[in-house]
Amino acid sequence: MTDMYARYTRLRFDRPHPKVLRVTMDNGRMNTADAALHAELADIWRDVDRDPTVNAVVLTGAGTVFSAGGDFAMIQNDIADFDGRARRWREARDIVYNLINCSKPVVSAMRGVAVGAGLVCGMLADISIATKDCRIIDGHTRLGVAAGDHAAIIWPLLCGMAKAKYYLLLCEQVLGAEAERIGLISLAVEDAELDAKAVELATRLAEGAQSAIRWTKYALNNWLRAMGPTFDASLALEFLGFTGPEVKEGLAAHLEKRRPAFPPDTAV
Q1: What are phi and psi of 136, to 5 degrees?
Q2: Of 131, 124, 39, 97, which Cα lies nearest the Cα of 25?
Q3: How many domains does one find in the chain?
Q4: pLDDT tens for residues 219-245?
Q5: Is residue 267 part of a domain?
Q6: Would you give the DSSP letter of residue 22?
Q7: Can you tell me the distance from the alpha carbon of 11 to that of 22, in angstroms, rounded to the nearest whole number?
C-alpha cells in the first residue's frame, strides 16, 4: 500500500486485485460519519485519482453495516458552532464533487443500512450494489434539515422525480431489492454474494481499457455537473437548517428514540 493512505484513521485499505483498492469505512460505531470519517471521505477520492497503482475502487463498510448516518456529536457541533458548520459544508461539497471528478471507477457494496455521508458515496459510485434487504434512507427531513448532500443531484436522475420526492420528502426507507427495481442502484444481490460481486466488477473495470472507461465516466458525469447549481442550493439550504429550531428537535428525537414533534409553521 502506498504511503498516501497511511494518514487515514477511519478508512481501511486492502487489495483484492493488484489494481483494485478496497476502501472500508470502519470506526467501530456502525461506521457513522464522525468528524474524522466525514473529512476522510472528502479527501480519499483525490488520493485515488492521483494514485497510478489504482484502476478501480470498491467502497464498503466494516461488519454488517455500510454506514449508519451522521455521528450525533458531529451534528451537535454543526448546530452550535459556525466554524465547524462551515468546515462540514466544505467537506460535504468536496465529498460529492471529488467523487464525481475522480477519474477511476468506483463500485459500492452496501449492506445493513446505508445513511448519511456513507450513502452519498454509495449512491454516487459508478456501479452501486446493495444487498436485497439493505435499508437505504436519506434521513435529512426526519432530522429537520433539507435533503442536501447528494440527494438533489442524483436521485431524480436515477429513479425519477416522483419517486425521489416520495422518498426524500417523507424520509421513507427503500430496501435494496426495491432500489434496484426503480433504478436507484445498479444491482441488488444476496448478502453472501455482495463482496465477491463488487470485487468481480471492479476487477473487470481495472483490467479493461482504461482511457475508454475513464473518459466514458467523465462524459456521463457531465449529467451530474450540469446539476451542480441544484446541488449547491440543496447543500446550502441543508446547512442553513442547522441554524434553525427544527434540527434541534430532530436531534433530540433521535437521541431519545421517539417521533419528532417539530415546531409548527417555521418555514419562510
Answers
A1: -100, 120
A2: 39
A3: 1
A4: 999 999 999 999 999 999 999 999 999
A5: no
A6: E
A7: 10
CB 180 within 8 A of CB 188: yes
196 C-beta neighbours (distance < 10 Å), count: 12
Q: Over the Cα atoms of the chain, what is R_g?
A: 18
Residue 262 lies in a domain: no
Q: Give me the phi and psi of 15, to 5 degrees please.
A: -120, 95
Question: Who contacts 210 (Cβ-Cβ below 8 Å, separation ≥6)?
Answer: 55
CATH number at residue 185: 3.90.226.10
pTM of the model as a whole: 0.95
Helices (H) and strands (E) in the chain, counts: 13, 10
Query: Going by DSSP bridges, is the β-strand pair 56-61/20-25 parallel, antiparallel, or unpaired?
Result: parallel
Which are the contacts of 265, defined by CB distance < 8 A and separation ≥ 6? none
- pLDDT of residue 199 exceeding 90, the answer is yes
For residue 133, tell me if it sits in a domain: yes
DSSP state of 263: P
Q: Grid coordinates representing 73?
A: 456529536
**Residue 121 domain-assigned?**
yes
Read off the amino acid at residue 244: G
* Count of C-beta atoms within a 10 Å radius of residue 67: 29
The C-alpha atoms of residue 253 and residue 73 are separated, in whole angstroms, by 14
In which residue are the cell numbers 446541488 written? 231
Give me the domain span that covers residue 26.
3-194+205-256
Short-list 192, 80, 210, CA closest to 133:
192
The CA distance from 196 to 198, in Å, is 5
Task: For residue range 4-47, list pLDDT tens digits in order.
Answer: 899 999 999 999 999 999 999 999 999 999 999 999 999 999 99
